[in-house]
Amino acid sequence: MSSQYLSGKQVVSSIFAFIHCFHPIATRKMIHSVLLVVFASLVVSVLSDPSPEPAELKPVYGPQPNYEKIEIPHCAKNTTKAWCLEDSEYPQYEIQQALERHYQAGVLDFYKDVLAKTSSSVDGIDKLNDEVYLCPSSTGYVQPLRAINVEGKWRTIVNRVESYGIKYTQTARVEECNVVVGTSCSLVPSCYQSKCVQKAVFHRFLVYDANEYTFPFSLEKFRLPGSCSCVVGAFHL
Question: CA torsion sign, 133 to 137 to 139 to 145?
Fold first, then answer.
């Protein structure tokens, strides 16, 4: 019990003083009767009005962090590049079914738009001609099945899938430097300042998204290595 309440001994002493104040000749039986009535009143008061328990404090949380789920394909574990040319988990059947389901909805128009308006599209080209470069590089024509778009997300690219007699293929030319960026250009005289730099090109691909059931196709941009260029500076002796 809190210290602000009187002890039982203090209550009894107060009652004795009160009775003797008004009835100096009160008998012991009268005192006992009064004490019994007071004790019963105290018991009833305690049982009928228990001390309230402290209110439960609920923890206050701040706004929940927004964790965006980033799906990385299995093929990305076997390459350091931003695209996959082979993928054992590529959803070819699902893409084929979606192409047939949405053929009338304009997916073919999307595909034709990629071929017609993307300057770096090289549909039908798969061989290299003899070329001479000022900086050593590797050039190839690729048909990626997965790639990282300009937003940094892995996307599924519609490639090597046939539907209604149309084979959907999307090819891009890539060129990567074989030297450390900043190295002097090999065919430029040493009297000129020069260095090799990796340049990129933006390419559009028709992509497939299984989470968009209404229309799972869209055109998205991808950043691919476009050339290993030589930058020539001032002449010096």
Answer: negative
pLDDT tens profile 136-149: 999 999 999 999 99
Contacts of 118 by beta carbon, 8 Å cutoff, 6+ apart: 203, 204
CA torsion sign for 75, 80, 82, 86 is negative
Q: What is the rounded distance in angstroms from the CA atom of residue 111 to the CA atom of residue 119?
A: 14
Q: Is the pTM of this model over 0.85?
A: no
Q: Which of 147, 146, 232 is nearest to 190 (CA)?
A: 232
Angle at 45 between CA 40 and CA 51, to 5 degrees: 140
Confidence grade of residue 66 (pLDDT, cut at 50, 70, 90)? very low
Model confidence at 115, pLDDT cuts 50, 70, 90, reads confident
- Report the candidate in 84, 105, 114, 116 with the shortest Cα–Cα distance to residue 216: 105
CA distances from 3 to 6, 7, 13, 39, 45 (A): 8, 9, 18, 20, 18
Query: Alpha-carbon distance 180 to 196, whole Å?
Result: 8
Evaluate whether 172 touches 203 at the Cβ level (below 8 Å): yes
